[in-house]
Amino acid sequence: MSKHREQSLKNRSDILRKCYPLVATGSWDAIAISDIEKVIKQTRGAIAYYFKNKKTLFANIWKSRCRLTPVGGKKLTPSSK
User: Fold this and answer.
1) Distance CA 76, CA 66 (A)
2) Nearest to 13 by CA among 67, 53, 70, 51
3) What is the reported pTM?
4) Residue 16's CB: how many other CB atoms inside 10 A?
5) Is residue 4 within 8 Å of 39, Cβ to Cβ?
6) Residue 78 to residues 16, 69, 75, 81: CA-CA distances in angstroms?
7) How confident is the model at residue 46 (pLDDT cuts 50, 70, 90)?
8) How distant, in Å, are the alpha carbons of 17, 20, 71, 76, 78 from that of 26?
9) pLDDT tens digits along 4-33
10) Residues 74 and 80 sit within 8 Å (Cβ to Cβ)
């Protein structure tokens, strides 16, 4: 993996990690992009580079935090019952 790609993945991960407390403590609708900028110490452009909009950022925060643990060692798929 290139050094640029590694840094890009790290930046994206840092944004998700630093935004989680905002999401966990309040209404997502009440959180402004300027609030996010202050918390992550990056610009609106950095947020837009990695995430299409605030809704996408929110979805990625939860996706990164809420992982399903397989039951009985079986891989869970959408068709699993």
Assistant:
1) 14
2) 51
3) 0.73
4) 20
5) no
6) 25, 14, 10, 8
7) very high
8) 16, 10, 32, 31, 30
9) 999 999 999 999 999 988 888 877 788 899
10) yes
Token pair belonging to 9: 């993945």
- Report how far residue 81's alpha carbon sits from residue 67's, in angstroms, rounded to the nearest whole number: 18
DSSP code for 79: T
- Residue with tokens 């925060």, as numbered in its chain: 61
Cα separation, 55 vs 30, whole angstroms: 13
Q: What is the pLDDT of residues 59-77, one digit of tens each?
A: 898 888 776 445 555 554 5
Q: How far is residue 19's CA from residue 24's CA, in Å, rounded to a whole number?
A: 9
Helical H segments across the chain, by residue range: 3-25, 33-40, 44-50, 54-65
Q: 3-class SS at 70?
A: coil
